[in-house]
């Protein structure tokens, strides 16, 4: 206990007590008197991938507008415009000097991938191929399409693509441009792990082989770790001010961020650290069975896709992590359990109440958040509901907004709240991490866990963020197969067996960071990678 709360911290381990204060120096830019101020800038470097790790609303987009020469910063003098020489003077001797000089002396061309790919069909209609051909300034389209696996969709109209397809099309369209500076705002939402690793590889290749500057915002820490050469931490008070630290090594930056304490800045950004279990948790198999399902089969159309699920059982109070590639039937299984689809073989107990949050959220009604949530539960506004759902999901500030005005991350939090607010036996959440920053992922994780425990309910969570699955799941349901052709699901198993099966399908092993115990993807073919594969230990130390 921190001394303020008598009992257990209502936010679990994640309350920020001493919010960081604004710095006692001039910001790079301040939008207006008493408006948002940005301190510090990220420093993109030729041939390198620079990451920014921090919450939404901290000024990342503002920083990119500055680095793209679309916003001349005022160095805190609201109403004036500095010239670049003054800005350069302020940054002489820092990692940013070289970039600013290049920017002053020549035109910097910028290519960027937007954060919310779901909005692309609103801005562009027509064939996917047309969009991609317009952007192919480097003549690399065929290769990108091939490596990203979007060949099957290039002749479809943009508005028929799924979020995962749009994400890869947007990445191809950005990387095909011929720019000096590329800004990629979140590349992982809706992608599975293999697709995330391919995206990381393509971004690294463009930096390494072509000497381009890449700046990425990414909240999947296992992928950021793999992707970046250096990272800046962004902290502050979202919406009020943001501070971008000087670059740190990726390893130290992520470790400091997880520990909640920035060493050079001597700044605590979170009360406690985020911890990972180095050894597989002992399975707490005491829970009663909530649902027992027989072997199930389901195919679509003339059997273009078929799914077969081994018989299994789901227990009370547990969080069952669901992992596996995209397109192999995870959502189909969820719909079978939810009674939205009938299986071809086997039968699901129809007496079970299931609340379902789909991967692609469709709550775009002209209705306020509070009205929407109170239409779902009578508990809305009770102290229990506030503590268990509204606070951890940070809903207070957006209660009066219209659902149609929410950002992707806000919409995700409302959808998770709506799902948990239903009275159900089984809560199925498909990719709750999408568009949440790291802090929000941790809060959402703890809300889902606590909710399942306190309500003797079960949560089944499909997600591709390995850190989130690690923090969230008691057991794992592993899917495998060939995307769009066939899928198989094993019975739910313990974390160790489940991770070994899942990661051996992917051919990836994780080692542990010696300081924080957090999992880090091993380089393929490295000594550790080979040793762990031989021992059959892909994730947990034996
Ligand atoms: P991030 O990309 O980290 O989410 P942004 O740079 O988009 O953050 O925004 C940081 C803050 O600056 C937000 O509170 C936003 O409302 C504010 N802001 C952005 N653009 C303007 C503007 N043109 N005028 C005033 N405030 C702005
Ligand atoms: P996942 O959740 O693992 O990404 P899904 O269960 O959504 O996979 O889909 C599995 C496969 O079934 C995909 O190839 C998908 O295109 C196909 N599919 C999903 N729903 C339908 C449907 N209603 N009709 C025909 N095919 C479908």
Commentary on this structure:
There is one protein chain. The protein has 542 residues and is of the alpha/beta class. 32% of the residues lie in helices and 18% in strands. It has 18 helices and 24 strands. Strands 1, 2, 3, 4, 5, 6, 7, 8 and 9 form a 9-stranded mixed sheet that branches. Strands 13, 14, 16, 17, 18, 19, 20, 21 and 22 form a 9-stranded mixed sheet that branches. Strand 18, helix 15 and strand 19 (458-462) form a beta-alpha-beta unit. The radius of gyration is 23 Å and the shape is globular. The two termini are 33 Å apart. The relative contact order is 0.12. Residues 1-7 and 13-17 have low confidence and may be disordered. Bound molecules: adenosine-5'-diphosphate (ADP) (2 copies). The site of one adenosine-5'-diphosphate (ADP) has 11 residues, from helix 1.
Offer a concise description of the structure.
With 542 residues, this protein is α/β, with parallel strands linked by helices. The protein is globular.
Uncertain spans, ≥5 residues at pLDDT below 50? 1-7, 13-17
Helix content: 25-40%
> What is the CA–CA distance across the termini?
33 Å
SS-derived structural category: alpha/beta
Number of helices: 18
Number of strands: 24
- The global form is globular
**C-alpha-based Rg, rounded:** 23 Å
**Average pLDDT value?**
91
Amount of beta strand = 15-25%
**What hetero molecules are bound to the protein chains?**
adenosine-5'-diphosphate
Largest sheet: 9 strands, mixed
Descriptive key words:
32% helix, binds adenosine-5'-diphosphate, nine-stranded mixed beta sheet, disordered N terminus, single chain, 24 strands, alpha/beta, 542 residues
């Amino acid at each position: 206990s921190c001394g303020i709360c008598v009992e257990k911290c209502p936010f679990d381990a994640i309350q920020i007590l001493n919010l960081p204060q604004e710095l006692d120096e001039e910001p790079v830019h301040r939008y207006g008197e008493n408006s948002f101020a940005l301190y510090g800038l990220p420093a993109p470097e030729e041939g390198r991938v620079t990451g920014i790790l921090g919450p939404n609303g901290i000024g990342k987009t503002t920083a990119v507008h500055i680095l793209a020469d679309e916003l001349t910063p005022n160095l805190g003098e609201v109403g004036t415009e500095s010239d670049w020489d003054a800005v350069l003077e302020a940054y002489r001797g820092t990692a940013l000097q070289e970039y600013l000089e290049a920017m002053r002396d020549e035109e910097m061309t910028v290519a960027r991938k937007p954060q919310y790919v779901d909005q692309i069909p609103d801005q562009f209609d027509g064939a996917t191929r047309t969009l991609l051909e317009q952007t192919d300034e480097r003549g690399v389209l065929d290769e990108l399409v091939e490596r990203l696996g979007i060949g099957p969709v290039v002749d479809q109209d943009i508005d028929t693509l799924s979020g995962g397809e749009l994400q890869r099309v947007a990445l191809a369209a950005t990387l095909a441009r011929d720019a000096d500076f590329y800004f990629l705002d979140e590349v992982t939402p809706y992608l599975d792990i293999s697709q995330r690793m391919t995206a990381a590889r393509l971004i690294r290749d463009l930096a390494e082989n072509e000497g381009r500057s890449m700046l990425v915002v990414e909240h999947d820490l296992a992928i950021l770790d793999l992707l970046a050469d250096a990272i800046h931490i962004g902290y502050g008070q979202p919406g009020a001010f943001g501070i971008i630290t000087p670059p740190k090594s990726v390893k130290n930056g992520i470790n400091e961020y997880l520990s909640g304490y920035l060493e050079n800045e001597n700044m605590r950004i979170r009360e406690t650290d985020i911890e990972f279990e180095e050894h597989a948790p002992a399975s707490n198999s005491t829970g009663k069975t909530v649902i027992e399902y027989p072997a199930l089969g389901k195919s679509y159309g003339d059997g273009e896709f078929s799914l077969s699920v081994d018989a299994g059982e789901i227990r009370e109070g547990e969080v069952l992590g669901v992992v596996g590639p995209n397109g192999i039937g995870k959502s189909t299984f969820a719909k079978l359990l939810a009674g939205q689809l009938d299986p071809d073989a086997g039968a699901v107990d129809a007496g079970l109440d299931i609340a379902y949050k789909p991967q692609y959220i469709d709550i775009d009604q002209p209705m306020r958040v509070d009205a929407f949530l109170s239409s779902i539960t009578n508990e809305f506004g009770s102290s229990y509901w506030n503590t268990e759902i509204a606070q951890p999901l940070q809903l207070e500030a957006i209660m009066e907004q219209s659902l149609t005005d929410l950002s992707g991350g806000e919409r995700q939090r409302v959808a998770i709240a709506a799902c948990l607010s239903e009275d159900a036996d089984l809560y199925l959440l498909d990719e709750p991490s999408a568009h949440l920053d790291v802090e929000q992922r941790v809060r959402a994780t703890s809300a889902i866990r606590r909710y399942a425990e306190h309500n003797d309910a079960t949560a089944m969570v499909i997600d591709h963020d390995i850190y989130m699955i690690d923090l969230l799941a008691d057991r794992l349901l592993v899917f495998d197969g060939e995307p769009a052709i066939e899928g198989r699901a094993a019975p739910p198993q313990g974390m160790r067996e489940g991770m070994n099966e899942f990661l051996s399908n992917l051919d990836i092993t994780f080692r542990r960071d010696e300081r924080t115990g957090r999992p880090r993807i091993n380089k393929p073919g490295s000594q550790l990678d080979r040793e762990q594969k031989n021992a059959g230990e892909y994730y947990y130390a034996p």
